[in-house]
Amino acid sequence: VSLVTLLHDRRQRFKATTGLSIRETPRDTTFCTHAIQQTDLFIVQDAQADRRFSNNPLVLHDPNIRSYAGAPLITSDGAAPGTLCVVDYAPRDLSDVQKEALRALSHQIVTLLELIKTRNTIAEITHSSQQREQALRESEQLKSRIIEGSPDCIKVIDLEGRLLSMNAGGMITLEVCDFVPPKNSSWIDFWSGPDREAAAAAGVS
User: Fold this and answer.
1) What tens-digit pLDDT sequence spans the chain (205 residues)?
2) H helices present in the chain, as ranges
3) Bridge partners for 163 per DSSP
4) Is the peptide bond before 26 cis (omega within 30 degrees of 0)?
5) Would strands 82-88 and 155-157 be described as parallel, antiparallel, or unpaired?
């Protein structure tokens, strides 16, 4: 039996399995709880002869585990969320070649897990960015509707006082039917007499 396990607060869940039909077990009965506390392989050659596991329900009952070898999945930040492990129904030890293979495979699994985590993080950032862009667009649309719906004269002029845009209320106030001719003209030129000074002051503010 081979398993890729991830341990949670109370459960051990199998993310990939070969030779075992169950998908999870209680964490307090798992061999992997011991394995993730190691920096290298954790090997139990005969669980029935090991006092730590001789009364374990996974040893005494289905699936009747007798031997276990697990490699902790140690991530780049030093955490060990699970294991790659192999178990058997008879006492067994691993050869040096098998131990190296288990280590190498565990490193590959960690790489894949971190790639998945990175991909998910990028997806979350992209989604968040899209949400912000949508909110900004909606805000701009709302602002445009408020400006266009206002009966007040709302204008945009550049630093030299040239008229760049004007809302519908302003065009009605100034009796402008087509904005193209007055565009880029001086805002001050729309006024005369005392109103010219007020317009100049309003343009500066």
Assistant:
1) 999 999 998 899 998 999 888 888 888 889 999 999 999 999 999 999 999 999 999 999 988 999 999 999 999 889 999 999 999 999 999 999 999 999 999 999 999 999 998 999 999 999 999 999 999 888 888 888 888 878 888 888 888 888 888 888 888 877 788 888 888 888 787 777 777 777 777 655 4
2) 32-35, 57-60, 96-149, 168-173, 194-204
3) 157
4) no
5) unpaired
